[in-house]
Specification:
The chain is mainly alpha-helical. The chain is built from ten helices and five strands; from the N terminus they run H-H-H-H-H-H-H-H-H-E-E-E-E-E-H. The strands form two sheets. It has a three-stranded antiparallel beta sheet, with no helix packed on it. The two termini are about 45 Å apart.
Length: about 240
């Protein structure tokens, strides 16, 4: 097919295939792009247009349509949609050498009121713990000999993500710091949830400073069960 006539949908598909071949994104990220595309973009006439012919005005109208026709759209989800559009156009221009609009200015200039989006959070009193409540939770978790509860307590003390917590190994403890160089990810493959080992978010290795409390939690965990024996992420879901 002549690339000059490649539709937005065609280029999006090739972009996903490219990131899979080059391993530039995790499987979960690729699946999220596909799911968002299927939910918000796939059925719109816009994606059938040759990407080389799409104008800034058509893109703006499309973005406005997405916002106006999706009552439960969150600001975070809309940001993800814009990432898909930006990535698809950039792939067309840079990798496929297709002359098309640069969407950066459009994305930067178009603004929507916050009221156009729904809040991703529930009621504040159901989502936020008071300081006194947090102390009670920590006390309860700290008095346990359950590795999973100690894991939750460690996450509260360090800010570790669940996937990072589940893949900790003894050699990751570096004195007063914890080296975070891997994470467990969840992705849907052939309709089934699959868990796999990968890099931390944004493919960045980082170090987390350990408080005395965090170090004591790790010591207790090591006595109960070696950290190298991984606790599946599914235990926390």
């Amino acid at each position: 097919k002549d690339k000059a006539y490649a539709s937005f949908s065609d280029v999006f598909t090739m972009w996903l295939k490219h990131m899979e071949e080059m391993e530039t994104h995790s499987i979960s990220t690729k699946n999220r792009y596909q799911n968002d595309y299927d939910k918000y973009l796939r059925l719109n006439h816009f994606v059938t247009l040759p990407i080389a012919s799409i104008t800034e005005q058509e893109l703006v109208r499309f973005l406005k349509l997405i916002v106006s026709t999706n009552e439960n759209l969150t600001l975070k989800r809309f940001s993800g949609i814009k990432t898909i559009i930006r990535g698809t156009f950039n792939f067309a221009r840079i990798e496929m050498d297709i002359e098309c609009i640069s969407v950066k200015n459009v994305m930067d200039d178009i603004l929507f009121p916050i009221s156009a989006f729904v809040s991703a959070k529930g009621e504040a009193d159901l989502q936020v713990f008071k300081k006194s409540e947090l102390e009670l939770i920590k006390q309860h978790l700290g008095n346990s000999d359950d590795c999973r509860k100690l894991g939750v307590l460690l996450a509260m003390e360090t800010g570790l993500r669940v996937g990072e917590l589940c893949t900790l190994q003894k050699q990751d403890i570096c004195g007063n710091r914890l080296k975070i160089e891997r994470s467990e990810h969840k992705a849907q493959i052939d309709g089934k949830n699959t868990y796999f080992l990968g890099m931390p978010k944004e493919y960045k290795i980082r170090y987390v400073q350990l408080s005395e409390t965090a170090k004591n939690i790790l010591k207790t965990s090591l006595l109960l069960e070696p950290i190298a024996r991984k606790i599946p992420i599914s235990c926390f879901l």
